Amino acid sequence: MKLKAVLLGILTAGALTAGEVSVAAAANTTYAFDEIKAEFAKLYPQTTLNVSLGASGALSTQIKNGAPFDIFMAADMKFADDLHKEGFATAPAKTYAKGKVAMFSVRGVDLSKGLEILKDPSVKTISIANPKTAPYGTASVQAFQKARVYDEIKGKIVEAKSIGEALSQALKASDVGFIAASAMYAPKMAKDGCNGKPCKEGENFVLVGTDLYEPIAQGMVVLNRAKDNAEAKAFYDFILSDKGRAIFAKYGYEF
Fold first, then answer.
1. Could you write out the three-class secondary structure of 7-56?
2. Helix, strand, or coil here: 217?
3. What letter does residue 147 receive in the DSSP assignment?
4. Are the CB atoms for 68 and 232 separated by under 8 Å?
5. Are 51 and 232 contacting, i.e. CB atoms less than 8 angstroms apart?
6. 127 phi and psi, to 5 degrees?
7. Residue 5 has pLDDT above 80, yes or no
8. pLDDT tens-digit profile of 206-242?
9. d(CA 33, CA 29)
10. Which of 28, 78, 189, 254 could disulfide-link 180, Cβ–Cβ 3.0 to 4.6 Å?
């Protein structure tokens, strides 16, 4: 009996320390997550971190339909706060980073001309994330409208499911893509992501003026499923810590 009690104690201790955290994260965070996982693992080596990446609107819908996530890292505050208002999260959203939009091309488009170049006949296709589900897509449309080019270019716009797919389309087929600036700081893109060469600012991408779109303050919430999950709280705190923010800063985010 004593041996059984000892074994039960060992198993119970193991269950408490070998936890699991499921994160639903906006696609723009893709490029930072390898480093986030590595640094979090140093602090919590026995915790398994599962990350699902996608458009914020689509992930929000999945959560409302019962998807088993613990943390939601949206591409804006609204999607995260709405989950709290509708009773799916334990507290209002907190901003974990502020994103930027970049105009990107590997087709030799003269990006120095700014958004005006989109009206050029040589630019036939423009990829953006779906503005209904992806805040970076919304920001792209806002930039077109404020720059007064939208009416002339709307027939060229191709909507991708997520900001990650917008980048993929721009690499494979589209003349120009409006993407998360964070992608340009990813090791692969910085090394040989543009036709086998490093992606260069001014040549392959330029940042879209932040005065042309509403700030992309990205919000995070702990979902009800994880209200008693110590590992989920630890991950939440890590993302908001100086170490977490330092990682996002490396990928072009602001605070």
1. HHHHHHHHHHHCCEEEEEEEHHHHHHHHHHHHHHHHHCCCCEEEEEEECH
2. strand
3. T
4. no
5. no
6. -95, 130
7. no
8. 999 999 999 999 999 999 999 999 999 999 999 999 9
9. 6
10. 28
Residues contacting 113, CB < 8 A, separation 6+: 120
φ, ψ (nearest 5 deg) of residue 92? -60, 155
Q: Would you give the DSSP letter of residue 157?
A: E
Confidence at residue 3, expressed as pLDDT on a 0 to 100 scale: 40
| pTM, to two decimals | 0.86
For 62, the token pair is: 């999945």
How large is the angle between the packed helices 77-85 and 56-64, nearest 10 degrees? 10
Tokens 């959203």: give the residue.
93
Q: Which residue is listed with tokens 């170049």?
A: 117
Contacts of residue 152, Cβ cutoff 8 Å, sequence gap at least 6: 118, 119
- CB atoms inside a 10 Å sphere around CB 110: 13
Q: What is the tens place of the pLDDT at every residue in 35-93?
A: 999 999 999 999 999 999 999 999 999 999 999 999 999 999 999 999 999 999 999 99
Residue 108, burial from CB neighbour count under 10 angstroms (0-12, 13-18, 19+): exposed
Token representation of residue 228: 């008693």
Question: In this structure, what token pair is assigned to residue 31?
Answer: 């490029």
- Look up residue 49 and give its two tokens: 């971190």
Exposure string over 161-197, b if 16+ CB within 10 A, otherwise e: bbbbbbbbbbbeebbbbbbbbbbbbbeebeeebbeee
User: 115, 225 in Cβ contact below 8 A?
Assistant: no
